[in-house]
Amino acid sequence: MMHNTIIIIHRSPGRVTGCLDTIRASTGGEYRLVVIDAGQGRDRSAAIQARTHGQAALQVIRCNGGRGAVSACNAVLKRHRRHQVIILDSTVRVTGGWTEALGGCLDQAPRAGLVGPLMATHYAGLPPQFCNVNVAPGSAGDLNAARQVRHRGQRVAARIPWAGCLAGRVAMIQALGCLDETCPDIDVALADLCLRAQMAGYQNYLAGDIYVTAGEQPAPQRWHRVLRDKWESLDPESNRRKHYEALRLGRRAEQACRREELDQAIEFYLKGIGLFPAAENLYLELADLLAEAGRFEDALQTLREIPGNDPNPAAAVLTGVCHRGLGKPDRAHALVDHLLAERPQSATGWWLKGVLHKDAGHRSQAVQAFEKSIALDPGIGAAYTELGNLALEKGDSEKALELQELGFSLSPDTGGAATAYHTTVSRLQCYRQAIPIFAEAAALGHPSRRLCFLLIDLLLKAGKPDLAMAVIEKVLVDFRFEEGLLGAALAVREQLGAEPFPENGDSLCFCLIVRDEERDLPRCLYSIKPVADEIVVVDTGSQDRTRDIARVFGARVYDFEWCDDFAAAKNFAAQQARARWIFSIDADEVLSPFDYEALLLLLQRPASDPVAYAVTTRNYLKLMDVIGWQPNDGHYPEEAGLGWMPSEKVRLFPNDRRVHFVYPVHEMVEPSLEAAGIKILACDIPVHHYGKLNHARSLAKGESYYKIGLKKLEALQDSPAGIRELAIQAQTLGDYPEAARLWEHLLTLETGQGHTYLNLGTVYLELGKYAKAQQMARLAHKMDPSIKESHFNLALSMFYMGDAGGAIGILEKLVKQQPAYFAARFILAAACCCAGEDEQARANLGKLKHTSIAAGLPEAVDTLIQGMEKAGQYAFARAMQTLIPV
């Protein structure tokens, strides 16, 4: 009987041939192959391979992609009668031993759910400088030859291992209900299956002893968003939604553990347990955390509270660990003996037995128990570490190093493995041998603060301050700010000296002006450093460690006496630049690595034809009722909030003395570019801005900018751009009378600008001047029919005036043209409710429950009800209270 069925999802023309060839060359035994051709007829190679592959058990199923591929995959899964299934993308290239490694992880790991191989994307925990010291090889075959020695049996817990290649037991998948056919495509459906496996009490893993490559990898940020929208659309009071939220709290607890924030981690676990008391894994994780911290009584109490009567082997071992920690070895012995009598194949039980023998001084019995544990489960790193500790006690340092290295490689976060290995490495001074081992452990998945610190120590001892600095920079981004680390980092930076300036003509300088930005600055500098030839930071009076953080990242730091003029400060920064190009960026902004290559291409434009580039800023928001709002689409992992509001201005321009910023607030270089005859071109590289997510800080900044603008109002009298920015700031701050005055003043300076009428209409809505708001909406549409918000404002003003039917007519056309305009669909649902069209109201609201704004619907309803009451539409307010089920 065939052990495996391999399902290949084929979507990329020409790719399936290579995938099938590597499967044929690298897969032993008898297996069945199914190719789901989701290429929508663009590529016939799948059918050709079906005739030439030489395997009688190869089948090709054609579909139209998307949900069709999910349905086709389910058709195979539901008929499956074999032990194991592997689902992979046709871009994957496998190597020898791949099915054995995935199957071994499924068979040996406790409560194994879905298992995936290692991919290049999993080594994301460290910067690119480590490509020459970590495990990234020249070929997957070279890597696997090494991995299968040092990492045999390794498994890394993972929420979603990788949607491009997953193995699982057929019975488990069928019990979970197979793939959810409401998911838009196969990647999302597989990620959802991983999540449901976790909710059913299984643990998903990466198999650490197999590595595969892929030409095109699914974008996880997209299916993260789709999954979040799906699960957050459930009724908040339902058990499935509570379970989902409890798992999210568990993930937040894990992140806090990596930051060594114990109290916060405990708080997250307790919240998760309180929300969904049946989540057994949260009790175990909390108890393990408490035991690691030496809080054994608390850990025991947590274990006693695990619901249900079924004995849990993991809980039994952990109970024994706690009794050992409390100085009760007899209780621990009795527990482990009982466990091994019932489960003689328990590798963790034999490990604990060995630890207890070691404590009692029974060395030979301890060794036998540890070796028994390893024989049962080659991936139990803690047993190797204990054997290494015993070898060290005997004086055999070389043997101890070998065993501790194995233990640490297999389980870097377990039982003091990292500390034991690091101590022996330091004693023997074999730093260069240990650096790749620590680099891999710190890079794989989400590294802990402790592992990164140990790696930094080894790099410095090995005389590699440049690599140590790269890790320090990453630590400053990932973990909380620490004075001690910053002091050490400055010493390393001083040792390295100034960053070399390139000789080529395409150099780029990033210029920033900052004040008290120690919280945001590391992330910004880390994002720009890979493409920066120099970084100039101008500080305008920081009272925190902003200057030092900038120096750590290799920036040249200058002081500037603040004079309430952003343009003056930015011009001073630009004057310090030596590079050919200048990119202006703020501390609460980042660039995405996805855009590095495109940015470097822009810099290659000949100096004889100078141009500047207008860049779109994605201003991420927790709101959606903002002019120009766009929903997050999952394209960038940098996305945040519910969506973003675009703003555009020149960011990238030549280092030319004729180019300078104007206006004291909301400064820009466009006027000087125009005067110099330098063309402005559009580019597709966005800047990701997070400042508006911190509402309190954003308001404080806005108020400061507004005050500066008012001081300089005389200079702005004839500047439409300056008056516009001041009006926007007043509107943001909620000073609607002043905003109306400024927008009205702007209409005297320039006519025919649709957005001016649109903004003025929005202000009139806030002031309750609904007839004027209608008038402005119509004028905005007349000036620029493409502005979708003019239709929205018109409908909303009609709705506030009691004309629900008129609003419905406008909004139905709008949402048909703009399906992702969630604010319009929400008002449409409300208007239908008030017009007595309950079915249409529920239908529109139901669509919103499967979007990123689902969690905010109750608050949105409450806000709209308040608005209706303010407008005197009390019947509408009552209708929404009773008829919109949120």
List the helices and strands and how they pair.
Elements: E1 4-10, H1 16-26, E2 31-37, H2 45-52, E3 58-62, H3 67-79, E4 84-89, E5 92-93, H4 98-108, E6 112-118, H5 140-150, E7 155-157, E8 165-169, H6 170-176, H7 186-199, E9 203-211, E10 213-214, H8 220-232, H9 239-258, H10 262-275, H11 280-292, H12 296-304, H13 313-325, H14 329-342, H15 347-359, H16 363-376, H17 381-393, H18 397-410, H19 417-428, H20 431-443, H21 449-461, H22 465-478, H23 483-496, E11 508-514, H24 521-528, E12 534-539, H25 546-552, E13 556-559, H26 566-575, E14 581-584, E15 589-590, H27 596-602, E16 611-621, E17 630-631, E18 643-654, H28 670-676, E19 679-682, E20 687-689, H29 695-711, H30 713-716, H31 720-732, H32 736-749, H33 754-766, H34 770-783, H35 788-800, H36 804-817, H37 822-834, H38 838-848, H39 857-870, H40 874-883
Parallel strand pairs: 1-2, 1-4, 2-3, 6-9, 11-12, 11-14, 12-13, 16-19, 16-20
Antiparallel strand pairs: 4-8, 5-10, 6-8, 7-9, 14-18, 15-20, 16-18, 17-18
Helix pairs in contact: 7-8, 9-10, 10-11, 11-12, 11-13, 12-13, 13-14, 13-15, 14-15, 15-16, 15-17, 16-17, 17-18, 18-19, 20-21, 21-22, 22-23, 23-25, 29-31, 31-32, 32-33, 33-34, 33-35, 34-35, 35-36, 36-37, 37-38, 37-40, 39-40
